[in-house]
Design goal:
Blueprint (H helix, E strand, L loop, with lengths): L5 H22 L4 H12 L10 H21 L3 H6 L1 H25 L4 H11 L4 H10 L6 H27 L7 H38 L4 H21 L4 H11 L6 H26 L2 H6 L1 H26 L6 H9 L3 H12 L5 H36 L15 E4 L3 H12 L4 E5 L2 H9 L5 E2 L5 H6 L7 E4 L4 H14 L4 E6 L2 H9 L4 E4 L2 H14 L4 H22 L6 H29 L7
Parallel strand pairs: 1-2, 1-4, 2-3, 4-5, 5-6
Helix pairs in contact: 1-2, 2-12, 3-11, 3-12, 5-6, 5-8, 5-14, 6-16, 7-8, 8-9, 8-15, 8-16, 9-10, 9-11, 10-11, 14-15, 14-17, 15-17, 16-17, 23-24, 24-25
């Protein structure tokens, strides 16, 4: 009988370990990540020894992190990413430098040489993007203040890894003839970075959408999936070839396609690959834990892990408080960013190649990062069981989540400034509504005024079911975030076709996106209040109140009619501008004629 190929045997081992360990870990309340890590330890060199080529698997499995960043990029439109620039570079810089300085000073105080202390501090200051974003996603925290802050800091860390790697050759043992070259290395690396990122941005703007449009015309789903993976693999390879972060390149590609009409299809195609490869990454991390080094120097390993974890916990908690992260969310936020990161493996291996570290030091630091990844899910479990209930009691009444099936005929998703007005008017009419909001501070504040608001994310199918979506008549989508708003609408239309949707639009593109989904009852949030302000201006100028109201109503009717004319041309910018310009001119001419007619009937000196 012919022997089975190694890839087939290894696939069987990985899948078997995951299928056994992950459900068992979830059943014990430990979470899926601990299950993957435990599976990796079990089948790795220090467990059953079923797999020995750990580094090869780790490099391959890192592609799961790349796919995850691509999908996150798809959820961020360029305008929204630009709005996060201060958080990314401000708080991201504070986290990396703050943690690095504290760890560096601690290592120097322990007698570690400054070069080793500096590189170790920079590597240990980085956090695990894979674990942090996975936990944020599992807990539906990404739309919250802590989720946005954590994502911004993690994104900055991917950018910060580039200059950290460029610094290593300068700090390494370099011969005199290569010293001049080493001095120019950071400059050349910076120029490469700028050129590659500019190429991805410009090429993506000009080529990606026409390319996917051409591929979509073939009407071959598997080729579209192949093209999606090819895009991510190609950009990741390009970034890697010039020493940049693969995950950062994939994220940029996702952002460039965030406004594309193919965004949802790309997400659907790549999501299964991301989940499998991310699970494989966690298994590989479990296999990479060097228990030999741990056994030789258990006390030193414990001191390193405890030292850098405590240092980062203190610094990150202070930053979280400074940023205004709600105190109920700070413990999870702090622990997720305190653990070591997968990019530290690359930093420490590169430092070894540059003769900054010995092999023993590198193994010790890599082992400490892996151990911190093992410890952090256990810390999260302790926080969930012991700390969060006490924080909820200290902050007043515990946030109420939906536990029983609701039966109100109306569901309001989002209870900020817009949803509150809708809810108050319904309440005044004696109508009951089930209200969902995902902002912990907002829920706590609103409940103090006597409203019953459930804490939860309306884009979760299970919460919509518990909210009574299967029997309710109306869903009011009043959330602030445009992406989340459209996600809720898509979910409701797919699973609850009985629901009539009344939606809030933040701007014209959002209005168009809702109309594309067949939502007819859409209100632009500032339109009516702006009209009332315009009426006030006319009245101050001397217009009789009834005439000012009439002019505002005329403008309102014309604006609605104009939007209906513009809607079919929303993707043709030239035609859209032409229709809008023509409509505005018609309105101005019509009102000018009416003003002339009215002026003839008014007494002299009116309006002065």
């Amino acid at each position: 009988m012919e022997h089975a190929p190694s890839w087939l045997i290894n696939s069987f081992i990985y899948l078997s370990a995951a299928v056994i360990a992950v459900p068992l870990s979830k059943a014990l309340g430990l979470g899926s990540i601990i299950g993957y890590l435990a599976a990796g330890i079990a089948i790795g060199p220090w467990g059953l020894g079923l797999v020995t080529e750990v580094q090869d698997i780790l490099h391959f499995a890192e592609f799961g992190v790349v796919l995850m960043l691509f999908l996150i990029g798809l959820e961020l439109e360029p305008k929204r990413l630009w709005s996060l620039r201060r958080t990314i570079f401000g708080w991201g810089t504070a986290q990396v430098l703050g943690c690095a300085v504290v760890i560096f000073l601690g290592a120097m105080a322990a007698g570690v040489p400054w070069r080793i202390a500096l590189v170790a501090a920079l590597g240990l200051a980085l956090s695990s993007t894979a674990i942090a974003l996975q936990v944020f996603s599992e807990r539906n925290l990404l739309p919250t203040r802590s989720g946005q802050a954590g994502f911004s800091i993690l994104l900055f860390q991917d950018v910060a890894a580039i200059p950290i790697l460029a610094l290593l050759p300068v700090l390494g043992s370099i011969s005199e003839q290569n010293e001049a070259l080493a001095q120019t290395a950071p400059t050349l690396q910076a120029l490469k970075t700028i050129a590659v990122i500019a190429g991805i941005v410009l090429g993506g703007r000009l080529l990606l959408r026409p390319l996917f449009r051409w591929i979509a015309r073939s009407k071959t789903p598997e080729i579209f999936t192949a093209a999606s993976l090819l895009l991510v693999v190609g950009i990741a390879s390009l970034m890697l070839s010039v020493g940049l972060s693969m995950a950062l390149g994939a994220f940029l590609a996702g952002v460039l396609l965030a406004e594309s009409e193919y965004r949802r299809e790309l997400e659907t195609d790549i999501e299964p690959f991301k989940g499998l490869l991310l699970g494989l990454f966690f298994i590989a991390v479990g296999m990479s834990v060097d228990f030999g080094v741990l056994r030789q120097s258990p006390g030193l390993m414990a001191m390193i892990v405890a030292g850098f974890l405590i240092s980062k916990l203190v610094v990150i908690y202070a930053i979280a408080k400074w940023m205004g992260v709600p105190f109920q969310e700070r413990p999870v936020f702090t622990v997720l960013l305190a653990q070591g990161g997968e990019f530290a493996f690359v930093v420490f291996q590169t430092a070894t190649a540059a003769h900054i570290f010995s092999n023993q030091t590198s193994s010790l630091l890599i082992g400490s990062v892996a151990v911190s990844m093992l410890v952090s899910p256990l810390l999260l479990l302790a926080i969930d069981k012991l700390l969060l209930p006490r924080l909820a009691q200290r902050g007043g009444s515990q946030l109420e989540e939906i536990a029983e099936q609701q039966e109100a005929p109306i569901i309001i998703a989002g209870f900020g400034r817009y949803g509150q007005i809708v809810g108050r008017m319904l309440l005044a009419q004696g109508l009951s509504a089930t209200v969902l909001d995902h902002d912990a501070d907002m829920v706590e504040t609103i409940r103090q005024f006597g409203f019953r608001v459930f804490y939860g994310d309306a884009s979760r199918l299970d919460l919509l079911r518990l909210s009574g979506a299967a029997t309710a008549k109306i869903l009011v989508v009043a959330v602030d975030d445009k992406t989340q708003s459209l996600k809720i609408v898509d979910l409701a239309q797919e699973h609850f076709p009985n629901l009539q949707i009344v939606a809030r639009a933040r701007d014209v593109p959002h209005w168009n996106a809702l109309r594309d989904r067949g939502v007819v009852r859409v209100e632009r949030e500032l339109f009516e209040s702006s009209l009332r302000s315009a009426r006030s201006v006319l009245e101050i100028l001397g217009y009789p109140p009834h005439e000012a109201r009439q002019q505002a109503m005329r403008f309102r009717q014309h604006n609605f009619a104009l939007f209906e004319q513009m809607y079919p041309h929303r993707k043709d910018r030239a035609k859209l501008i032409a229709v809008a310009t023509e409509g505005r001119q018609q309105l101005e001419e019509q009102m000018a004629q009416e003003r002339a007619q009215q002026a003839q009937r008014r007494p002299k000196g009116w309006g002065k």
